[in-house]
Design goal:
The chain is mostly beta strands. It contains no helices and 22 strands. The chain is rod-shaped and about 115 Å long.
């Protein structure tokens, strides 16, 4: 049996008592809330339940339903091994998500999926995940971009957004950077860098983790540099690992003077942003550097590691 407190439609408040240790609150004879002998609170039978351990004034585990006075929004919270409401996970409180939260989830009652909160103006807000009080991941409400910690919160377009400055991982199996951009390539002399008069300077790159793929086009009509010819301006320095060497594809070296019966090649050495030009005999033999030319053009591409 059950001890009951019933709001009767004819007799007012009617109480019954037994020794079951179960208390039911009823309206018109139907149980709305019951509390069992283990202090489990059940709503409308057993479909929805709140359990809690409030021993010694400490909230060990609790599911709480409350109205937030800070933002006038109904909240659903879980307090894991915390004390007081500072550990409350306020699911709809986007303005103050740093209260020792373990996670945040906002769910619209009108939708059957997890979603971000719609404000009074009908605008979706981003869904943000926190760990240790700091933002770890954000799902943009307008562009659908997945924004990692440190990434631009105004990221535009669908995809994963990394921070502008890489937060490098020590785990070789972790993708910790993606970037696309442009750079301005130059021609440089190895003995004296000099200054060039350029007709074309185009450079583009894509970086994925440690790998950088690039292409460049340089055209110049005059140059004051001396020594061997180098192409400078790569967006990232090559790996500093000893004896690292990367072959660069030479699409063309128009008007560059080479020794007779030689072909042009290019290499990227360790810890540098400059590509070295070489010439190799057609029939085989030792290669040599290419002297800087005062008027020429070149197209280069390749992938190297940083």
């Amino acid at each position: 049996m059950t001890s009951t407190i019933n709001a009767s439609t004819t007799a007012g408040i009617v109480t019954t008592a037994d020794t079951s240790g179960v208390l039911a609150l009823q309206t018109a004879g139907t149980t709305a809330i019951s509390i069992d002998a283990s202090q489990n609170v059940n709503f409308a039978g057993t479909a929805q339940r709140i359990t809690g351990d409030f021993s010694n004034g400490t909230i060990a585990n609790r599911v709480a339903f409350q109205t937030s006075t800070a933002n006038s929004a109904t909240s659903v919270g879980i307090i894991p091994n915390g004390t007081g409401t500072t550990a409350l996970i306020n699911a709809f409180n986007n303005s103050d998500p740093t209260n020792s939260s373990a996670m945040q989830v906002a769910c619209l009652a009108a939708e059957s999926r997890i979603n971000s909160l719609i404000t009074g103006t009908g605008t979706y807000q981003p869904m943000t995940f926190y760990t240790g009080g700091s933002e770890s991941l954000r799902l943009s409400a307008t562009t659908k971009a997945v924004i990692l910690a440190g990434g631009s919160t105004s990221a535009n377009g669908t995809g994963i957004t990394f921070p502008a400055t890489q937060s490098a991982s020590t785990d070789a199996n972790t993708l910790d950077d993606y970037e696309e951009g442009t750079f301005t390539p130059t021609i440089v002399g190895s003995t004296s860098a000099g200054t060039g008069t350029y007709s074309t300077q185009v450079g583009t790159y894509t970086r994925v983790g440690r790998a950088v793929s690039f292409r460049l086009l340089i055209g110049w009509s005059a140059h004051t540099g001396t020594g061997s010819m180098l192409a400078g301006g790569l967006p990232f320095a090559s790996s500093s690992v000893t004896d690292t060497l990367t072959a660069i594809t030479v699409g063309g070296i128009n008007n560059v003077t080479l020794s007779a019966n030689h072909v042009g090649t290019a290499l990227l050495f360790t810890n540098t942003t400059q590509i070295s030009f070489y010439q190799t005999p057609v029939g085989g033999g030792s290669d040599s550097t290419v002297p800087i030319d005062t008027s020429a053009s070149t197209v280069l591409s390749g992938t190297y590691f940083v």
